[in-house]
């Protein structure tokens, strides 16, 4: 029981916006369990008290016991043997900590017998490196077929074969959340046809297949059409989806990724993804079609675009939206405006977005798709 719970806590300790799945060796857990534990982000330190914002967004006060072990673990590591002893003065706001101990006198207090810390600067550096790797070696699309060793993905007008191995790790996006940090460890059996999928790994020379190191998937709705109404007060947009011909009201939250595709970039993308588009000499076709530049993954393009606010969206704008749905409510994960040319291109396959923006950066950037 303790082994499983500590494994999960340490795995999430290095998850700020998005971190890869980490499975810890059994040697990590050969310690007696404490009767309570929490993980979260350090908000403030005063004397010997640490104020922590937990994963549930509540605040607790942590006071290390006199004999408490305070250890610093490198991001990505799950082996306490590699952890370095530190003192309370080494802890700073923004750091991630895992606390084990017992309840204090107040309902929201913990007396810690062990504190495991990851520095915010180390996490940011790791995430920047991982984000760059997702940008360089990541791709994705809609799942069309699955067998024991291969996932067939529709990437624009092309087909991509995702080859899985025993070493492939999986994350599953929570259907009721637009935060990648809420994605849970998963398995191949969690993936279904129609799912959105992002994969990172080694691509074949012709771009038709990729050997998956990490896969992130989820069940989402792809919506495309012209906006008929924008309610700034309620934070919603209304559009008639081109595929289903149904009118949909989508909520745009502060966690939604909203971007605008410039007219010139939209025209270039539409041309490169038109049926029969030529591949420039000396380039390798990508699974999205076209050459290295012309066939760029649309979701990777989105990652490089500046953020847009809902106040800049107006009725008549054409948009692509990836949304999560809970009951009858749809919430935008990614919304891209400026796509009139993509939706009206004759004979071209309707483009789709990933729920995750792979470029960008900033406070919400993480190690994987965000």
TrEMBL record:
Source organism of the structure: Granulicella tundricola (strain ATCC BAA-1859 / DSM 23138 / MP5ACTX9)
Domain DUF5666 span(s) in chain numbering: 141-215
Name this protein carries in UniProt: DUF5666 domain-containing protein
Record carries keyword Signal: yes
Keywords of this entry: Signal
Low complexity bias (residue ranges): 274-287
Any Pfam family hit: DUF5666
Bilayer-spanning residue ranges: none
Superkingdom, taxonomy of origin: Bacteria
Span of the signal peptide: 1-30
Positions of the UniProt region annotated as Disordered: 274-295
InterPro entries per UniProt: DUF5666
